[in-house]
Specification:
2 copies of one chain form a homodimer. Chain A is an alpha+beta fold. Chain A contains 6 helices and 10 strands; from the N terminus they run βββββββαααβααββα. At the A-B interface, strand 5, helix 1 and helix 2 of A face strand 5, helix 1 and helix 2 of B. The structure holds a DNA duplex.
Chain lengths: ~230, ~230
DNA sequence: CGTTGCATTGAAATCCCTCAAGCGAGGTGG
DNA sequence: CCACCTCGCTTGAGGGATTTCAATGCAACG
């Protein structure tokens, strides 16, 4: 039994400005691990800002980032946006025990994504209690991240938020001391509950303090990790 | 096999001011449901502000509020506190797939809590995949709440936060139009990422606007639900 | 009836946002 | 190849929402 045949493009782009040029259907099937579960998956490419799924949409698939980056977000009626999380290569998103997504997901940059039917994972969980535990653990990791994010949004200053963000990203990239940000200042702002201007000012300030270097707006080099760690509080 | 014998007081109070007067060990065993799982539990009483478990502590038990209210929180090194969640009668907290708690939990007011060994739930999950799914669903509900909270902290104004808080609590209490808040202004502030003064000012302002009435500081009567819903955005 | 702890209110300060202008890299067309 | 445009980012000035600091009010309790 292969899942591949059943994979098809999800969530057709709704906004006019969407780019479809790099949308391709399942290429070579590949084995992908979701927790302890390993299953054949299709891969799809999404171009920058392309929607992967929408808020309130039925959760048909679970996704794993192969390359690129993804954001999940919610938008209030007046346009204010809160980004829940960024997902980097190797990370899983869209995993739901329930039937519908509570966020929309979009590609932050051109991205390659492995997809698997949610029902296939559910089925694996029904067959094998360890698979079930593993999925539970994945949801719990999400919860842990959300809870850290809560503390950040509720009780940290703008500077602390930016520093926490950079250190978190650095850790997840395991990238030594330099970092290429896949996301824009607007994305960072909407993740940190700030405005682009404030984010920009905090970057500049950290640079003046010799804590970081900014060879260009998307690249951050940690210059004084000690100082950053102290701002992390 | 009864769990009761193995229950004992957890997390001895660390701060000097703690009250122990109403700490009592397992009384009558009672059947308690955790998701779809029903198991015999012990109950314990905790007095106001008493710690139920500590941050980073091993997650030995899972808890369900019988009466009273509970808060889970994290504290930064400089004393800033973020309350993750409040738990009302019927709600479950401290459920972890992993081994350790990521928050501390304290009684908001004198509370009666049912306890069950985490390993007992884990065991039920290993025996029965539906039990496992049910626990997963409980964690996911937590995640959903955390994500709503994220949006609130990241993108809502002080007034919107207070209104959202009141409406959420009202819904969970199913209490018609009046509400007896179990928690102090400080708890509310630390939940909403505000200060007590701001919370107090927002209450006063809503009262001036004839949206609510405040017979006393702990009691809130919804006077104009329509107006409140609009502020909810 | 004083004390104690929480809540409210006011005034001043602060942090972050808003509005606006300028800058720089990348792309396009002449 | 260079002028020109666009888009994202940065920077500045001013303003506003929330915090901080301080005083007062109020109810419970001994």
């Amino acid at each position: 039994m292969t899942m591949i045949d059943t994979v098809h493009p999800v969530s057709p782009a709704r906004s006019a400005g969407m780019q479809w040029r790099s949308l391709t259907k399942s290429e070579h099937p590949r084995l992908t691990t979701f927790g302890t579960i390993e299953l054949p998956t299709a891969t799809m490419r999404f171009s920058r800002d392309q929607e992967i799924y929408g808020e309130e949409e039925a959760a048909e698939f679970v996704y794993k980032v192969i390359s690129g980056a993804v954001r999940t977000s919610k938008i209030l009626s007046d346009g204010r946006r809160q980004i829940d999380s960024f997902y980097l290569p190797g990370e899983i998103f869209g995993l739901q025990s329930g039937e519908t997504h509570r966020f929309s997901a979009e590609a932050v940059v051109d991205a390659e994504i492995a997809l698997i039917k949610r029902t296939a994972l559910k089925a694996a969980a029904l067959r094998d209690v360890h698979a079930a535990q593993s999925l539970w653990a994945l949801t719990e990791r999400q919860l842990g991240r959300a809870q850290d994010h809560l503390l950040l949004l509720g009780r940290r200053s703008a500077q602390e938020r930016v520093v926490s963000f950079l250190l978190d990203l650095l850790e997840r990239c395991a990238a030594g001391t330099a970092l290429d940000l896949p996301m824009s200042r607007l994305d960072i702002a909407d993740y940190l509950g700030l405005t682009i201007e404030t984010v920009s000012r905090m970057f500049s300030q950290l640079e003046r303090d010799r804590s970081i270097e900014l060879p260009n707006s998307r690249r951050v080099v940690m210059r004084n990790r000690q100082a950053l760690a102290e701002l992390h509080a």
